[in-house]
Write a structure and sequence with these properties.
4-stranded parallel sheet, globular, 7-stranded mixed sheet
Length: 456
C-alpha cells in the first residue's frame, strides 16, 4: 500500500450513521435563547422554520443518528468520496510530512454541501413541505439545495449575496439548471432586504442579510420552510460523514493524522472532517493520540481569531434566536473577497464551543497567500481548489514546510471542501496580479461588536 495514491471505500462501506459530538463534550454548549424572553428556546419556537425531524437532530445528544436509506441512496451517487495522498505536492515541497486530503469536489454540486442539502430536502419532503427558502454566499450551498430539491420535488428560492451573485454567474446558472430561483440579496422582495437597500442601494450583501431574507419568507408563508447550509447543529451533524469515511480510509492507508485541517466560514466542512477525530480523543482521554485540529479562516472575516464569544443573532435583521458563538457582530459586513462561502459574521456554536474548550486552534490568512497555495496545489495535484478550500490548502502547506524546517515526519489531513471550476475569474485575477488582500474595517467591527445583545 506504500505507493497507493487514492484510498477508496466501496458503497457498502459508506457510514450508516452520522456522529453527534454533543454526546461526548465534557461541558454542554450554551443553549440558544429566545430574543424576547432570553429563555432557552423549545421545539415550538423552531417549528415555523424546520420540520420536527431536523429540530430533534438539532437538540439531540445521541452519539449516533441513523442516516435514512433514501438519503443514503442519493449519497451513493458520489459517496464515499476519495481520500488522496498528495504525493506530488509532498515532492514539490521537499517535505518529510505525509499529506492526505479528503476530496469533496466529486459531488454533483462540486462541494461538501450536498451532504446536508440532501437530508434536509428529504426530511422536509417527508413532512409535506413543498417550498424551501435559503441563502447562499459563493453558491456551493445554493446549488446543492437546488440539486436536492430537484430530486425530491421541492420548489427552491435562493437569496445569494450580491457580491457573489455578480462574481459567480455560473454558480447562478447551475442553481437555475437544477430548477431553483436565484435572487440577488439584499433584494426588494422582503422587508429586511428593502430596509438594507434604503440605506445603501449598492450594498454588497452578506450572509447575515441573505439569511434574514430567507427566514422572513419562511416565517411569513405556511407552505415554506427554511434550510441553512452551515452553523446549525444538524447541518454539522450531516457533514460528519466526511470524517467518518476519512477514519476508515486512513486505516486502509495504515496511517493516522497528527494534524487535521479545515477551512471555516460557518463551520460545516470543518466540523465534518474534525468532529469525528475530536470525539475519538474525548472518548479515549489521555490514552488516545492527541492531534492538532486547525480551523482556518479569512483574515478579512476572522470570527474565531478576532470575534467575541458572545450571544448574538445569526442574521442581520434579528429574526433568528440568540446563539452563543464567536461573532464579529450581526451587522458586520465583510469585504467582498473571493471566498464568498466564508463571509459570515459568526461561527457555528458547536465549533465556537470546542474552540473555547481548547480542543482546536484557529488561524487566519489573507486571500493572496491562499490563492498562491491553490495554484501550487493545482500544478502538483491537478485539482483547482475553491477559494474557500484554498485556506485549508495554505495551512496544510505551511504545516508541511514546518515539518521540513524541523525535519519531522508528521501526517497531515485536510478537507478539500470543493473545486474551483466556477471561480476561474478569481484565479485570472490572481494570476494577472489584480488580486489584492482585503481587511475588515476596525471602526465597523467595533461598532458591530458594540451592538451585541445584552444577555443577562
Amino acid at each position: 500500500m506504500s505507493e497507493t495514491t487514492k484510498f477508496l471505500l466501496s458503497e457498502d462501506q459508506m457510514p450508516k450513521d452520522w456522529y453527534n459530538i454533543a454526546a461526548d463534550l465534557p461541558v454542554p454548549p450554551p443553549a440558544p435563547l429566545h430574543p424576547a424572553t432570553q429563555q432557552p428556546i423549545g421545539p415550538a419556537d423552531l417549528a415555523p422554520l424546520f420540520p420536527m425531524a431536523l429540530i430533534e437532530q438539532e437538540v439531540s445528544t445521541e452519539r449516533r443518528i441513523e442516516i435514512p436509506e433514501p438519503v443514503r441512496e442519493v449519497l451513493r451517487l458520489w459517496r464515499p468520496s476519495p481520500l488522496i495522498r498528495a504525493r506530488r505536492l509532498e515532492k514539490a515541497l521537499g517535505t518529510p510530512a505525509k499529506i492526505y486530503f479528503k476530496y469533496e469536489g466529486v459531488s454533483p454540486a462540486g462541494s461538501h454541501k450536498p451532504n446536508s442539502a440532501v437530508p434536509q430536502a428529504w426530511y422536509n419532503g417527508q413532512a409535506g413541505v413543498k417550498k424551501l427558502a435559503t441563502e447562499t454566499g459563493a453558491g456551493q450551498w445554493g446549488s446543492s439545495l437546488a440539486f436536492a430539491g430537484s430530486l425530491f420535488g421541492l420548489d427552491i428560492t435562493i437569496y445569494q449575496v450580491r457580491v457573489s451573485y455578480d462574481q459567480k454567474p455560473y454558480r447562478r446558472a447551475l442553481m437555475e439548471t437544477y430548477g431553483a430561483r436565484c435572487v440577488a440579496s439584499p433584494s426588494n422582495e422582503t422587508q429586511s432586504g428593502r430596509a438594507v437597500l434604503a440605506q445603501n442601494p449598492n450594498h454588497l450583501g452578506s450572509l447575515g442579510i441573505a439569511i434574514s431574507e430567507a427566514v422572513e419568507v419562511a416565517a411569513l408563508n405556511e407552505d415554506t420552510k427554511y434550510a441553512l447550509g452551515s452553523v446549525l447543529n444538524h447541518v454539522l451533524l450531516h457533514q460528519t460523514i466526511i470524517g467518518e469515511e476519512a477514519m476508515l480510509q486512513l486505516e486502509m492507508a495504515g496511517d493516522d493524522p497528527d494534524v487535521v485541517i479545515g477551512c471555516t466560514g460557518g463551520g460545516s466542512n470543518f466540523a465534518g472532517i474534525a468532529f469525528p477525530f475530536i470525539g475519538m480523543q474525548l472518548r479515549g482521554g489521555a490514552s488516545v493520540k492527541q492531534r492538532r485540529i486547525i480551523a482556518v479562516e479569512p483574515a478579512a472575516c476572522p470570527s474565531l481569531t478576532r470575534g467575541k464569544y458572545a450571544y448574538d443573532f445569526g442574521d442581520t435583521a434579528h429574526l433568528t434566536p440568540l446563539v452563543k458563538m464567536h461573532t464579529l457582530g450581526s451587522t458586520f459586513t465583510p469585504a467582498g473577497f473571493h471566498a464568498g462561502g466564508l463571509r459570515y459574521h459568526g461561527m457555528a456554536p458547536l465549533v465556537s464551543h470546542v474552540k473555547e474548550l481548547g480542543l482546536i486552534e484557529a488561524r487566519a490568512y489573507h486571500q493572496t497567500a491562499c490563492f498562491e497555495a491553490g495554484v501550487m496545489f493545482a500544478r502538483a495535484e491537478g485539482i483547482v481548489p475553491a477559494p474557500e478550500a484554498n485556506h485549508a490548502v495554505r495551512c496544510a502547506i505551511d504545516e508541511a514546510l514546518r515539518c521540513k524546517a524541523e525535519d519531522r515526519a508528521k501526517t497531515i489531513l485536510f478537507n478539500l471542501s470543493g473545486h474551483g471550476h466556477f471561480d476561474m475569474a478569481a484565479y485570472q485575477n490572481y494570476l494577472s496580479g489584480g488580486l489584492v488582500d482585503q481587511d475588515y474595517d476596525e471602526g465597523e467591527l467595533a461598532m458591530a461588536l458594540s451592538g451585541l445583545p445584552n444577555v443577562g
